[in-house]
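In the current project phase, the collection of sequences with tokenised folds has grown. A representative record is quoted in full directly below:
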Amino acid sequence: MMGQIMTEEEKISVIVPIYMGAPWLRRCVASIQNQSYTNTEIILVDDGSPDESGEICDELQKTDSRIKVVHKENGGLSDARNAGIAVAEGEYIMYVDEDDYIHPDTLKIMHEVIGSTGADIAVFDFEMIPDKLVESFPVIEKVKEPVCYEGQDIMNQLWYKNLRTVVAWDKIYRKSVYDHTRYIKGRIHDDESAIHYILGQCKKTAYVDEKLYYYVQREGSITAKRKWTYYADTFQAYEERLAYLTERGYTEAAVFTRIQMLHFITVNYPYMKEAPEAADTIKRMQETVKAFLTDTEVTEKLTDEQKSTYRAFAENPAGYEKKVKRLKNREQVKEAVKNVLRPVKRLIKR
């Protein structure tokens, strides 16, 4: 029950993976240092950053005994998160990206949510903002009641609450969920690749509709400039997820994942086709669409228009792409496919 008094006996380890983060790092760390919940350790993982991020980490460590610094060779975001997990001493783990920051009461609220619900993971909401500090943080007088999920419904949120379920940084985790799983090193979209394994360790998850994380949108970030490898990596994550869900009997979530894959493939093909290295992945995508169109569990949830759209891709991706060429930009492409999916759409797109 929300509102019960929670103590600060339990430590929260906040992991900040860092690569080329010098311009934003102090702002990020300050938002963690200034939390109303103070029993924290702040783990700054310098992932071999060639800028002055490592030096800033060392400077910050001298000013706050709660700060722990890990310097390592560059291994990517997933490897940096794993390095933070390896040294974390808290009962709970959270992540904050180097260029983002959090509400002053984020840790207090989420510690109360995960403690009062008994969830293994508690998920909060976020706000996407320009690259600046908000003028003032909203006062949260009464936290909204969390919604909890168990059993099959845990995995089903990969469909119903897709984005909030997938990303790593909008959650507080019991450290025990990482006893048997880690992020996959080398993956570009590491949270998409790992989330089904992480959820598989959970008996209960909780979601609370409070915007406690400020996701900074800036030019030049990984999400602002995506290469074909991002889409290939995400497609592989979907393939692995489908195999995992099918093997473990998550029937409804597996069907949802097939529909997500149809959506993902047809939206993103135009942004992969120019790369010669993507040919094998595109062929695999085409075969996947063909196979899913023979799956009655999938097709019974599709309209005739949807089936026609996906068949066009299955028969000839290049011919399908000619249709979308008439659309001027990426957002129009996404909107067009979203309209096709609207009758069954409960997916929040990444």
